[in-house]
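Our consortium's second objective concerns turning raw sequence data into structural hypotheses that experimental partners can test. To show how far this objective has progressed, the report includes one record in full. It was chosen at random from the queue rather than selected for favorable results. The single chain below, 301 residues long, was entered without modification.
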Amino acid sequence: MSQSTSIHETRPEDPKQAEKISPSTQEKIAYPGTEQEMPNKPDHGEETYRGYGRLEGRTALVTGGDSGIGRAVALAFAREGADVAISYLPEEEQDAAESAKWVEQAGRKALRFPGDIRDEQHCTTIVQRTVQEFGKLDILVNNAAFQMTHDSIEEFSTEEFDRTFKTNVYAMFWLCRTALPLMEPGSSIVNTASIQAFNPSPNLLAYAATKAAIVNFTKGLAKTAMKSGVRVNAVAPGPVWTPLIPATMPEEKVKSFGQNTVFERAAQPVELSPLYVFLASNEARFVTGEVYPATGGQTPL
């Protein structure tokens, strides 16, 4: 996307070409991966996303906010008027600092919480610290995720299966359990699911199972949370160009990543962030328990 155009402009743009990337030049990188290791940088909306005050005066906590969808959401939230706390692994400090920079450049406050959300106490602490520092918590985005690919079930170790569920499902549960009693009516929880919840790839067996759990959890919690006036929804992306891809997928799959969509490309993170803004805003005040797909035309619903 060029700096002269924006996803909010009315001028039509060819969606097949708007965010074209060339993953063929991307080499395998070590988990968790950083943006600095990607020759084709993801577009988080740094030069293009425009805010319209949809989240003015609100506060948000975004897990996995250092890069990818998490950074795009943090940036968009800030430009819409929200103060943003981000959580991330300590190894992702450089990317997290970049995310915080963009939040602050939007004139909003940024908090950084390094640590591993597989730890229950850490999840409790970051919610409590967000409330202490910002005075409240209006939006919780459960976005951080772990995945690894294997060709057969025998290659999935118990340790890795456990890590996937702890990161993707248990952490979401711990964060929601702590946050919900502290959230005022009108607040919102947005979880990141995936097309894998509905159309699982066999080499992502553990990850896909966690994303199905997230969809179910979202729909169940929505019924309970509405008693407190809190909405709970999910976004289900298809392929998105983030550091997690070259860090967890074989090189041959990275080189063709996203080509199976009708756009023949992967999404850029900036193309997902408007969905999170919508679900967190008053414009979605009659929306709860829903899963919004953005799968590049692969939607299996």
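The partners drew two points from this record. Residues 50-294 form a domain with the Rossmann fold fold (CATH 3.40.50.720). The radius of gyration is 18 Å. Both points have been shared with the crystallography group to help prioritize constructs.
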